Amino acid sequence: MSSRFWRPADVLSATRPPIAFAGSRIDRADHIRADPAAIAALQTAGARVLRLDGLDPVLTEQGGLDWGTLADADRGAELIFLGIDEAQRGCFVEVPSDAPSGGPHAGPASWNAMSVLEAGELAAYGGARALVSWHARHRFCSFCGQPTVLAKGGWQRTCSACSSEHFPRVDPVTIMTVEHDGRLLLGRQPRFPAGRYSALAGFVEPGETIEEAVARETFEEAGVRVRDVEYVASQPWPFPSSLMIGCHAYADDPAITIDTTELEDARWFTRGEVVDALGAVGRGESGRAFGAPPAYAVAHLLLRWWVERG
Amino acid sequence: MSSRFWRPADVLSATRPPIAFAGSRIDRADHIRADPAAIAALQTAGARVLRLDGLDPVLTEQGGLDWGTLADADRGAELIFLGIDEAQRGCFVEVPSDAPSGGPHAGPASWNAMSVLEAGELAAYGGARALVSWHARHRFCSFCGQPTVLAKGGWQRTCSACSSEHFPRVDPVTIMTVEHDGRLLLGRQPRFPAGRYSALAGFVEPGETIEEAVARETFEEAGVRVRDVEYVASQPWPFPSSLMIGCHAYADDPAITIDTTELEDARWFTRGEVVDALGAVGRGESGRAFGAPPAYAVAHLLLRWWVERG
Questions:
Q1: Chain segment A19-53, per-residue pLDDT in tens
Q2: Which GO terms describe its biological process (chains A, B) (predicted)?
Q3: Is pLDDT above 60 for A155?
Q4: What is the mean pLDDT of residues A117-121?
Q5: DSSP for chain A?
């Protein structure tokens, strides 16, 4: 953990917490998505259908995901083929006609799921949630306005009128720690719990690289110019469809000018303050200088990465 | 260039070819997108409007982008605010009512632009192209089917009926070289020019990390299992809206089983064969063993990275 280049592979093989929403053990079986007969053949009595409450997970008394069967499913609902599990069972999730479209933040039920679900189950839930909410937001063709229908086992929607094909969205978001003189730049959004500071973040836009997005967002939000952007790790974050791309960068000038529409504060924290804040998370406390992001967020991992590589 | 960890910053500062479509010098001026008065104030006689032929670039006799003025613009067309150039001029591009939606591959005019345009101009074109084609594909609300209108200077569309907000898509794609015993795995798609082999690639799906997408795509397309995925560099690729995420990984078992719906061949190439193929690109030739991807593709950079880090 102390090597200069701590690869994502190391992150994934580390002890808990791993990257939340990564590590699904469901085989996506991409090759049969376009084969309706093969998907139908998996719709047996043994097939599993993930139960959701809106977009929230439903947990069993044992703290696992609640999987029902096709017998419980609504025959009128659209069905997404998630893949094949280790017992060779087809895994599905329904898109109810009243499925919510999902917001940009994780709610209490999702945070609870992150704390209790085993990694593979949490990943299965996250992938299913992202797909269901995408279908709920794409029942019409953005090209011509006519209704779309589910295709390719739920990995596509096709326009009933103009035949345009639409694919699930994955929105790349850069999230970055910035270092200057042994201290780390973290910011505070107004919606954060009291005392919380976290990594700055923002969507990658058309026409820029990951590194350019890191530099632009850091300058927009905190007025800080960065160099030498390094990739650290990524995380699927299904609220509603982000791919968090965790990076680290360096600043030569520590002067901060915050964008008050995004942040209410940004500060440089010492290594000791970050170590203290990370330690406090495990005790359910806030650190002495600030509260670190929760263990399941990639921002937490970025802080750990910075501390552990020394 | 021979260091073990060749960072994207090095790539960006290297001599030509840099990463095509990166390096725009237009300030996106995100803070004024939501300020119609500020955008209007930039719509002066000095404002620049990028000329496009459909989605293709229009080049001047000197081989630069052809920028017109607002006087040339169609008053009925939607106008996207691209940002502010180094001379403090507002930069815009129109979305004509008949704007094409754009396909998944670069056409001859785009390949020509990659070879003749200066890096900053190519990036300005790429960003503008991705935005125009996104608007052309999102004139209706995917949530309710009613017409959308341009908002926030073209960085959003808003539904005229349900007020849903829609944002430009950026689709993350993994593209990866895989190494085994000093050789590199490359594949050949049927649409490639004769002799061409390139890095395998595929879209990141909901519910997976970048590393998981690399592993899944390599196994799906070539039957090869990988470990220790490393990020190398990224590239915006506006056909129509990809973010190419270039990675390198390692395989323990070289046995190949290709997916014939994606590839017509995949092979392991020696370092000498890759060096020869890269050298041939500059002479407009195919290498002795295979033809390398063109200099402007991130796949070319991945091959160079592998050769140069030794």
A1: 899 999 999 999 999 999 999 999 988 999 999 99
A2: NAD+ catabolic process; NADP+ catabolic process
A3: yes
A4: 93
A5: --SSS--HHHHHHSSSS--TT-----B--GGGTT-HHHHHHT-STT-EEE-EETTEE-B-TTSSB-EE-GGGS-TTSEEEEEEE-TTS-EEEEEE-TT-----SS--HHHHHHHHHS-HHHHHHHHHHHHHHHHHHH-SB-TTT--BEEEEGGGTEEEETTT--EE----EEEEEEEEEETTEEEEEE-TTSPTTB-B-EEEEPPTT--HHHHHHHHHHHHH---EEEEEEEEEEEETTTTEEEEEEEEEES-------TTT-SEEEEEEHHHHHHHHHHHHTT---SS-BPPPTTSHHHHHHHHHHHH-
Alpha-carbon gap, residue B114 to B109, rounded angstroms? 9
In chain A, what residues touch B170 (CB-CB under 8 Å)?
171-172, 203-206
Is the Cβ pair A170, B172 closer than 8 Å?
yes
For A175, half-sphere exposure in the C-beta direction (CA atoms, 13 angstrom radius) is 25
In order of start, what are the domains of chain B with their CATH numbers?
17-137 (no CATH), 139-168 (no CATH), 171-309 (3.90.79.10)
Q: Which helix (H) or strand (E) holds B52?
A: strand B52-53
Residue B157: the pLDDT is 98
Alpha-carbon distance A287 to nearest alpha carbon in chain B (angstroms): 30
CB contact under 8 A, B203 and A170: yes
Cβ-based contacts of B122 with chain A (< 8 Å): none
- DSSP H or E segment with residue B38: helix B36-41
Interface list for B 39-98 with A (CB within 8 A) = none
CA distance B126 to B20: 9
Both tokens assigned to A281: 């998370």
Give the pair of three-digit tokens for residue B79.
């106008």
Q: Which residues contact A21 (CB under 8 A, 6 or more apart)?
A: A122, A123, A126, A127, A235, A236, A237, A238, B207
Instruction: Report the residue of chain A nearest B249, measured CA to CA.
Output: A9
H or E segment and range at residue B165: strand B165-166
| ipTM, 2 dp | 0.94
pLDDT band at B13 (very low <50, low <70, confident <90, very high): very low
> Residue A310: pLDDT above 80?
no
DSSP for B259-308, written as a single string: -TTT-SEEEEEEHHHHHHHHHHHHTT---SS-BPPPTTSHHHHHHHHHHH
Select the residue from B243, B250, B252, B258 to test the A interface by mutation, using most A Cβ atoms within 10 A.
Answer: B243
* Residue listed under structure tokens 């791993």: A18
Closest listed residue to residue A167, CA positions, set A179, A152, A181, A180 = A152
Decide: B71 and B43 in contact? Cβ < 8 Å.
no
Sequence-ordered alpha helix ranges (H) in B106-242: 108-116, 119-137, 210-222
Residue type present at position A155: W
